[in-house]
Structure formats: structure tokens, C-alpha cells
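Quick log. Single chain, no ligands specified.
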Amino acid sequence: MESEKRWYVIHTYSGYENKVKANLERKVHSLGMENEVFNIVIPMENEIEVKDGKKRSVQRKVFPGYVLVEMIVNDRSWYAVRNTPGVTGFVGSGTKPIPLTDEEVKQIMRSMGVEESRPKIDLQLQQIVRLALKAARLPDASAAFPKLMKNAAS
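-> predicted structure:
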């Protein structure tokens, strides 16, 4: 099948997403497949609900009945995921699952509030400020002090 780590969508019985995730995590661990099945995610987003005049934050499933799995598809991993209790199948045609595109994964993760880690640049420029000290006791004295400036582009 494929030897590259990609995100796939599995279809589950509606309302069984959490059980499927727990069952699949248990199965991956017991079969020692941590190097084939990497992440199992139920896409959720926070929603503000107003009930009895009170606001509260609730998590809502973005795609009820679906679970995302980051995995390398081979015969063994496909069989393990496909035969997990509560899984009805992979999203795709026939027996060949179709991976999500990178853009689709980024969009789903962004909607969940999981941002892709970007390197943070913390650049400090140093500017030397020369001050002339005028005092009766030090007529020709001057000193240099570094002035640290935070780069506005970071």
C-alpha cells in the first residue's frame, strides 16, 4: 500500500467516536504498532452555549461519526484499524483509503485551535549609544552603553 505517514478518516458509529479512539489506542499499544499508527484525533471545537442566561463553553464534534488517524497504511495497520470495534470503514473507495491533503489537515487542526508550530524568531539588535558626561570632575569623559531593541518583525 503506502509507506508514508499521512492522515486518514475513519467512519464510526455516530456517538461512538470516543470509544473508537480508546479502543484503537489500546489496540495500537497491545500490538506494538506505535511506529505505524501515530495520532488519533476526534475533531472538536469550542462553542459558547447560553443556557438559563449563563454562558458556558462546550466542546462540539466537528465531524460526528468520524475520527482522524495519522498512520502509515500497510496491510497490518489497515487491518488493525478496520477491525477495531465501532469502526465501519475508512473514507475512500473500496479497500484503498484516501489520505487527507496537507491543506485539509491544517484547516482542521486550525479550527480545533491546534496551530502548526512555527519557529519563533527573537532577534535583538544592539545599538551603541554614546553619552558625553559633562561634569566638573570629569571634563573629557564619555561612555558607551548598549541599547537593546526588540525587532518589530518578530
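The mean pLDDT is 80.
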